[in-house]
Amino acid sequence: MPARREEPTKPAWSSDELDSPSPPEIEAPHFDNLLGAWVLSRYSDVLAAFRSSSLFPIGPNSTANSEPPDECSQLKMREETREALSPAQLRSWRERMTPLVHSLADGLATDRPIDLVTQYARPSCLALAVMVTGIDPQDAERLQKIAEPISAFAAEPFDQVLRSCSKTAKVELRSCFQPGPEFLRDSGFVALAHTMPRLLANAWFALLQHPQQWSILHREPGLTEQAVEELLRYAGLPRVLFRTASKNIDLNGFHIRKGERIILRIIAANRDPERFSNPNQVDVAQGGTGQLTLGAGPHSCVGASLIRMAAVTITRPMLERFSRVNLARPVEWQGGSGFRSPASLVVSLER
Questions:
Q1: For a FRET experiment, which of 35, 55, 183, 348 has its CA 20 to 30 Å from that of 300?
Q2: Interatomic CA distance for residues 17 and 280, integer angstroms
Q3: CB neighbours of 89 closer than 8 A, spacing ≥ 6?
Q4: Is 74 exposed, middle or buried (0-12, 13-18, 19+ CB in 10 A)?
Q5: With the C-alpha atoms ordered 203, 205, 207, 210, is the resulting torsion angle positive or negative?
Q6: Residue 251 — φ and ψ, nearest 5°?
Q7: Among 154, 234, 135, which residue's Cα sits nearest to residue 194?
Q8: In what helix (H) or strand (E) does residue 148 lie, and over which residues does it extend?
């Protein structure tokens, strides 16, 4: 019988890091006594966990006997967010974003190294955060600074100092937004102003490691949408997600008891050779169909459509303008067990 732990242990799979020299190890489901949780890394098992109505999301620091969220409140929140992120609204934001990101891309120097994160990703994403949340543009940088500890804690959720700073920042940030759907207030601001640049940095780093794929997209920028799916698969941001069982269940032939924790190794599942051909290479022609970075089933990312729109809208102008992009400086990584990303991408650009 698996032992229970009251204090979760920090998971650490170095092979699940984007810069790892070794691909993720795909394992059969097993209970890890040190982590006090079931560990799922195969694509089929992680997908089944996402689709199960008996497994609900918990935080990394949650222990056994966590109470399930109010299902009615969760459904109401998701429906409000879906309505707020309607196709018409997404199209409006994209149309407003397009001239801005084209202007930023036009301003990127080719005669000296530039940082794609600070000079392109962050200002683009902050502008989108302003549009989506409706804040005063003059407040954007101040709120971005307030939100930094929240993002830092999400990247390393086992750091207790970051946890305390994040709690304080959430209270301060929430007071700056009007009540409304989740993605149109403080949580959406954090996602767009901080998490989105990290996701783009991962995706662009992957393309820099596969220059032939960049060349393909430069010649055929119309492939950007399917390329984003492939980059979400190969270089998605979340390393692990956590679930717990609301009742005893059988999942793909193994038995999980009520209250037991489950760790979903998202990066490993997205590299499962049983699901994806050549999983440890970027192939924009493959399209990344079925990637699990944005979840699946009843607990899929409610802001997925906005994330996709932003990634395509911000990435395509670079692909169109620059035939070649080379790293000009080694990458320094930031983050931890939640997610990691390049702190900067200093590159040389060729038109």
A1: 35
A2: 12
A3: none
A4: middle
A5: negative
A6: -125, 110
A7: 154
A8: helix 140-155
User: What is the spatial distance between Cα 52 and Cα 75, in angstroms, rounded to a whole number?
Assistant: 16
Banded model confidence at residue 2, pLDDT cuts 50, 70, 90: very low
Q: How far is it between the farthest Cα atoms of the chain? A: 63
What residue type is 220 in one-letter code?
E
Domains by residue range for the chain, with CATH: 14-350 (1.10.630.10)
Both structure tokens of 333: 């990584």
Tokens describing residue 180: 């409304």
The pLDDT of residue 95? 97
Lookup: tokens for 254: 């193994």
Q: What's the CA gap between 20 and 290, in Å, rounded?
A: 23
**Exposure letters 104-128 (e unless 16+ CB within 10 A, then b):** bbeebeeeeebbbbebbbbebbbbb
- Cα distance between residue 329 and residue 306, in whole Å: 31
For residues 169 and 147, give the distance between their C-alpha atoms in angstroms, rounded to a whole number.
6
Q: Which residues pair with 57 in a beta bridge?
A: 243
Amino acid (1-letter code) at residue 150: I
Res. 68 pLDDT band, cuts 50 70 90: low
